[in-house]
Records
---
Amino acid sequence: MMTMWRCSRYLGRRRRSITTMADSRAAVGWSWWDHAEPLPKDPIKTVTDAFLSDPSPFKINLFVGTYRDAEGNPVVLDCVRKAAAKLAGCEFLDSISPEDTSKLVEECSKLAYGKDSGVVTEGRCAGIPALSGTGACRLFAELQRRFYPESKIYLPNPTWSNHHNIWRDAEVSRSTFRYYHPDTRRLHFQALMEDIKNAPSNSFFLLHPCAHNPTGIDPSAEQWEEISHVFKVKKHFPFFDMAYQGVATGDLERDARAIRIFLKDGHLLACAQSFSKIMGLYGHRVGCLSILCADDKQASIIKGQLNQIVSAMYSSPPVHGPLLVSTILNDPDLKAIWEEELKVMTDRFMTMRAALHRNLEALSSLSWEHIINQVGMFCFSGLSPKQVEQLRKDFQIYMPNNGRISMAGVTIKNVEYLANAIHKVTRSTH
Ligand code: PMP
């Protein structure tokens, strides 16, 4: 009784003092966050909200960022289920151990650089688990600012929009290099080479090694050779952001081809890896950042620097997701299951590309070749923002304004409806 009385007296006093503080702030017209401006709504969030509130039974989600099966349902990969069963009963109360960290980083490096690559055995790879691809990019951006505060990052135009946000928030200035030709709907290789040549020597460039987001267009092996050569001449630094290894061609080795070409040419490079899409672990935030150094001594110094950045930012990575990934990568049977599952995902994307292309060609006199020339999860349709809006309004088909279609959202059931709608909104442009 006594305690309650004290409590209510205390609250009464406290409420009075809060009211007084609020009143006095109001009186001087000031509060702590007065200078914070509202930000424009994130474009993907806007599309998501509109999609969720649309009651139409025909609505199609073409902005979905993770894999969906032929019925449009989310998928837990079999390799992940089996790895989770193997880990069942482990207690994850402590931070990830140094042994588990090394195992994860080593397996990630083998994926990126090749299982027999000297880079791993020579110990000149400074690798660290990261909060997925986003976290790996952010760590690299921090390292770049720490050691090259005056440098910029050159990003492809277009690129995954968050690249701009990540380097902006790390206070590294950004420039772009040309990548895509809207008229040919192909790689603008000549312009890309010009921009790489014209950038000041020793510049940092971000490259997508496979399944470029958002265009689905990758340079050929010969083009990567040429790019690597110019990087060598200009002494540029290549930072590879690899979020889709295995879902461009269905083959992990082939999708790492660009990195292998740069390795063969002796570049010291860095690579961000993500398991969000390729293992369906979006919510677990598993990734890796690796930086190839001149020798093992330098690698150990860079690793120390990265660890310090991580300590101050979020202390340590989660445990369960990284253990799932390293369990799969360290077990030949689970790895084989994963590789088969990557082929299933890629085949589904390719089959849906072919179906969309076939349906459109049957209806439309425009060229839709680019749909089947592109690879990976995303199809850069070439639809204008106005056509995207019309698809949304008249057909309840939702995609970002840049016309990027997530092939994960296309199914046998909706592809005909989709092709018909695209034909209707594009026929007046002919
Ligand atoms: N890089 C690229 C090119 C991406 O498309 C994505 C995912 N959209 C990422 C990095 C990061 O994704 P996550 O943080 O989920 O690994």
Note: Residues 65, 132-134, 160, 208, 213, 241, 243, 274, 276, 282, 287 surround 4'-deoxy-4'-aminopyridoxal-5'-phosphate (CB under 6 Å).
---
Amino acid sequence: MTSKRTRDRLVSRLQEQGVTDQAVLDVVSNTPRHLFIDEALSHRAYEDTALPIGFGQTISQPYIVARMTELVLAAAGKLDSVLEIGTGCGYQTSVLAQLVPKVYSVERIKPLQDKAKQRLKGLGIKNVEFRYADGGFGWPGEAKQFDAILSAAAPRSLPQSLCDQLAPGGVLVIPVGGDTQELTVVVRDAETDKYHKQVYEAVKFVPLLSGLA
Ligand code: SAH
């Protein structure tokens, strides 16, 4: 159920759906998704579907994780630091952490983040800094700028606060909307400092909620 062959079948499905970045596909193939969900559901870990992780939240569908990661890698110039909003179970976090030097991850539900931290530790992933915070305003406390920001939760409209935390040339990948949502990519032009927005496919994410749970 959780063998390399099962994972490779998932990778083939992602390729069929149009994911082409080999580095992303390799990381998906090497990441044990079954360790990020409840044991009772682990037989479904390599299906290309979102699954419940408690607290009314879900682990993102592998296709979406791969697609968003691919968009980050394609659009960003230098990629030293990535901010993730919505750690959840830590699956997307661990995919990112295998591809970029430093990941910052924010979550508003403490028990979810605590579990995610333990999982990443168990997998020997050390380049992630976690904060229990409302990520709607980005990384709290410091006026940091990121080469990429990836949100796993959907705000109703594009938050300017997140655009402002992009480094020059940085990219924000985020689902935007309510009942219908669009996967949106914003690039902060390094020369003109203007924001360029591009809209991709329709998606379905949990809402970006404000405040701590
Ligand atoms: N990529 C994660 C997806 C988790 S679902 C995974 O694969 O597990 C989205 C997560 O965003 C949820 O855990 C939810 O609690 C979190 N979230 C929603 N609004 C948030 C906010 N304002 N700040 C931080 N996290 C938020």
Note: The first strand starts at residue 51 and ends at 54.
